[in-house]
User: Which sequence fits this backbone?
């Protein structure tokens, strides 16, 4: 995890997944980022097929 | 009260510049419809052609089946609210709102009744004697709104009406304006460059760029199913990756992004195998969880119901 930005209802994180950079919004718990969401921690990022959209190149 | 608006093949040039380049749009009766785009995309010019302030070089504008192109602005059953309010500084609130009715030679009792109703609608019934300089920006914009609504237009055109207000007041007025539109049932055509504003208030949104309509849809459609990269990036944050389609199967399309392999659900637009495409994911659609002790998911993010990767 490269960057963490607190945004109130959620926290935006920038992840480096083996060279693929992606940004994710993680819901905060009672107004706070989850305890496991800290810079440098190892995380699992899941992308469901329905979360992806194809656009013309 | 009807208010179905139809624009077809609308074109407008200013010198060599093409401001509006063949716009086709159908706005439904009673709809809150937004024209959304960056500066210079043609949204205000489109609005001004509907109002009659600009004459199209080509194309047609119909309101409830009647052509408006040859109708002068003051004869069109439309009214406009501007960002600058355009209130008369020497008239009080009541007289500002009454101005159009007096121009139409409405009787004194009718003026009093309709102005009173319009000011109650915008919650300014107690400020009738104030001059514009004695009002806040939000109150002045409400007077402008009452002045436009008192004439009971079939369509109300709003050109960035909240552009001069601070963020907090703008959010408050967004909610009020949406409630007001539902109450009166008038067709609203709303011009804005503010994505959040358009998504919050509109029944449907048209996203414009370079004088063309890129996509029309509900806020949910244009946000979740953008038609292209520009709409995707203009409406919020988007992860975008260039990918190559490798296979098309019943479960979806298999694409590669460099070394990574992803499965993407089929959409109404299906490219051919070998085609280079863009793959988009909104940040809130990326699921993130802690890596369990002893768990090893491999180095790469993959997709699928159980696919995952390490961050």
Assistant:
């Amino acid at each position: 995890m490269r960057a963490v930005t607190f945004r109130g209802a959620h926290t935006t994180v920038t992840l480096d997944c083996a060279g693929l950079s992606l940004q994710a919004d993680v819901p905060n718990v009672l107004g706070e980022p989850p305890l496991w969401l800290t810079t440098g921690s190892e995380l699992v990022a899941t992308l469901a097929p329905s979360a992806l959209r194809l656009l013309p190149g | 009260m009807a208010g179905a608006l139809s624009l077809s093949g609308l074109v407008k040039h200013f010198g060599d510049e093409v401001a509006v380049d063949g716009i086709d749009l159908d706005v439904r009766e009673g709809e809150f419809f937004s024209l959304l785009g960056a500066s210079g995309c043609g949204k205000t010019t489109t609005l001004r052609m509907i109002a009659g302030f600009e004459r199209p070089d080509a194309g047609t504008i119909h309101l409830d089946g009647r052509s408006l192109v040859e109708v002068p602005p003051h004869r069109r059953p439309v009214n406009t609210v501007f960002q600058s309010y355009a209130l008369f500084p020497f008239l009080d609130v009541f007289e500002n709102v009454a101005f159009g009715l007096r121009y139409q030679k409405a009787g004194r009792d009718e003026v009093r009744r309709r102005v009173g109703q319009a000011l109650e609608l915008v919650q300014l019934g107690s400020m009738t004697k104030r001059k514009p300089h004695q009002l806040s920006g939000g109150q002045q914009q409400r007077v402008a709104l009452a002045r436009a609504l008192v004439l009971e237009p079939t369509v109300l055109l709003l050109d960035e009406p909240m552009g001069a207000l601070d963020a907090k007041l703008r959010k408050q007025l967004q909610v009020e304006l949406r409630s007001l539109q539902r109450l009166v049932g008038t067709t609203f055509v709303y011009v804005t460059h503010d994505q959040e504003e358009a998504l919050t208030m509109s029944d449907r949104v048209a996203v414009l760029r370079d004088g063309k309509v890129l996509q029309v849809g509900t806020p949910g459609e244009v946000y979740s199913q953008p038609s292209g990269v520009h709409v995707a990036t203009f409406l919020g944050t988007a992860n975008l990756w260039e990918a190559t389609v490798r296979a098309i199967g019943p479960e979806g399309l298999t694409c590669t992004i460099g070394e990574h392999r992803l499965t993407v659900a089929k959409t109404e637009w299906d490219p051919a195998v070998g085609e280079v495409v863009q793959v988009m994911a909104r940040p809130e659609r990326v699921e993130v969880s802690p890596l369990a002790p002893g768990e090893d998911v491999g180095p790469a993010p993959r997709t699928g119901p159980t696919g995952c990767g390490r961050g």
